[in-house]
Amino acid sequence: MAIKVKVEFLGGLDVISSGVREHKLSVPLEEGEATLKDLVDYITNTIITDPKDIPVFIEDDTVRPGILVLINDTDWELEGGEDYVIESGDVFTFTSTLHGG
User: Which CDD domains match (predicted)?
Assistant: First the structure.
């Protein structure tokens, strides 16, 4: 059964998903077993449209430093990071804190 979640890309990070800031996803993973790491892999394989943009999002097999990750408006570090078990209805927000200028 699929898990329904919302994924948001903010702070200019929407450039990696063809300018789309909000994605309502039906992720083909098992609820109660799938982790945020699984979701990040799914995002990398399905939402990021240009392979050259993957390093903007991923570094050393995890979300790159400089990207704030929120799970239901709470810092992912407080929720277990990549080991957080995702549930239907969760909202994941990825915000770049790196700005050119």
Answer: Ubl_Urm1
What 3-state class would DSSP assign to 94?
strand
What digits encode the pLDDT tens for the residues 36-84? 999 999 999 999 989 999 999 999 999 999 999 999 999 999 999 999 9
pTM over 0.85: yes
| Alpha-carbon distances, residue 91 vs 5, 23, 53, 55, 59 (angstroms) | 6, 10, 22, 23, 22
CATH superfamily of 3-96: Beta-grasp domain (3.10.20.30)
Query: What Rg do the C-alpha atoms of the chain give, in angstroms?
Result: 13
Please, what sign has the CA dihedral across residues 83, 85, 18, 96?
negative
